[in-house]
Design goal:
The chain is α/β, with parallel strands linked by helices. It contains twelve helices and 13 strands. Helix content is 37%, strand content 18%. The longest helix has 18 residues. It is globular, with a radius of gyration of 22 Å.
């Protein structure tokens, strides 16, 4: 082979693209786009928010002049997430108000298309970056980076910023640090050495006062009212707690309740359910690695709704056909029976978690 033929041999090598850094492949995938829109799952969490902010910094540094629009699907729900958006600050456009044309490249972070984690699926992403176990429909995606072994999608973004030598401002370092930290807290840890390495790199660069303010926001009275309702309406079946949160004012509190009960020393599994808008929202937690809670919750909502998630943590949603108490009660019974059947727990062994609590009719 002559020297002149070598570049062509390189191009036809089926593994050639794999030798490019992931960040380079990402940037090449969006190079033809005149404008970028970043999208994440409904009610974005700190990981999703930090990913969008990090991508904006990456694209502004490496493809200057290209507008990047960050979006919010649903609402910024949890108080910590609201503090993050307000204090960093992070400018988000409601996704339903953002138009996408042929020149727009959509980057989806912390989720995948058609996994039930978005309010709408009309934006076909060009790039998908995610760490969830739940796989989506990826036809037409030009670049994907899917690493369920990572604790946070933000860890990928830190890798891209490092690979590309992009300087990281204290506010961005704070957002990415909190994005990873909020995903990997809890025991057992769902994290790998890359997450720890990213946090070790980010922490000296983060604004620690800003981080403390994000971690410790003030909470509205409804937060405590929901905890009271859930405590009074929690039932224990074997090593499972099922908590009915009632009507909630922000959907993320359902996962906060699930994590709260997961600390109970008599249980391994917690399912928290609450009504938000015209949906039942579910949050499942398990204390044992290898439990594939996303698979369990998918079986529980099969035919009614959608679910997915990680090994230890899963979320789901069931659209309500109507809002009558009987409809909700019937669905709650079905959810409880299916969960206990999946986990091989006798549903007749149930008892109130707090026996002395005055009863509030459930739901
Ligand atoms: Mn995440």
């Amino acid at each position: 082979m002559s020297a002149a033929e070598e570049p062509e041999a390189e191009l036809t090598d089926p593994y050639a693209t794999q030798r490019l850094a992931r960040s380079q492949r990402l940037l090449e995938a969006i190079a033809p786009c005149k404008r970028i829109v970043t999208v994440a799952h409904v009610n974005p969490d700190p990981d999703a928010l930090a990913c969008m902010l990090g991508l904006k910094a990456l694209i502004e540094a490496k493809q200057p002049g290209k507008p990047v629009v960050m979006t919010v699907d649903g609402m910024i729900a949890r108080a910590e997430n609201r503090a993050m958006v307000e204090l960093i600050p992070i400018t988000l456009e409601p996704v339903e108000t953002v138009a996408v044309d042929a020149d727009t490249g959509v980057i989806m972070v912390d989720s995948q298309p058609f996994t039930g984690r978005r309010a709408r699926e009309d934006m076909a992403p060009r790039v998908v970056l995610d760490h969830h176990e739940t796989g989506g429909k990826l036809e037409g995606v030009v670049f994907k980076d899917l690493r369920p072994n990572l604790g946070a999608t933000s860890t990928m973004i830190v890798g891209y910023l490092l690979e590309q030598g992009v300087s990281v401002a204290p506010t961005l370092a704070t957002a990415l640090f909190y994005g990873i930290e909020s995903e990997i807290e809890g025991y057992p840890r769902e994290a790998c050495s890359l997450d720890d390495g990213a946090m070790a790199w980010l922490f000296p660069r983060a604004d620690k006062d800003l981080l403390a303010r994000i971690r410790n926001p003030k909470l509205p009275q409804s937060h405590f009212a929901t905890f009271k309702h859930a405590l009074a309406n929690s039932f224990v079946y074997g090593d499972v707690v099922v908590a009915w949160c009632g009507v909630v004012t922000q959907p993320d509190i359902i996962s906060e309740i699930a994590e709260f009960f997961q600390r109970f020393d008599q249980v391994d599994w917690t399912l928290a359910v609450g009504k938000f808008d015209n949906m039942l929202k579910l949050s499942l937690r398990v204390g044992l690695l290898g439990s594939h809670s996303g698979v369990v919750l998918r079986a529980v909502v099969d035919g009614f709704g959608t679910a997915g998630g990680h090994d230890k943590r899963a979320g789901g949603a069931i659209p309500l056909p109507d809002e009558r108490p009987e409809t909700i009660e019937t669905l709650l019974t079905t959810i409880r029976r299916r969960l206990l059947k999946e986990l091989h727990v006798d549903e007749h062994q149930g008892r109130r978690l707090l026996q002395a609590t005055p009863t509030i009719p459930a739901p």
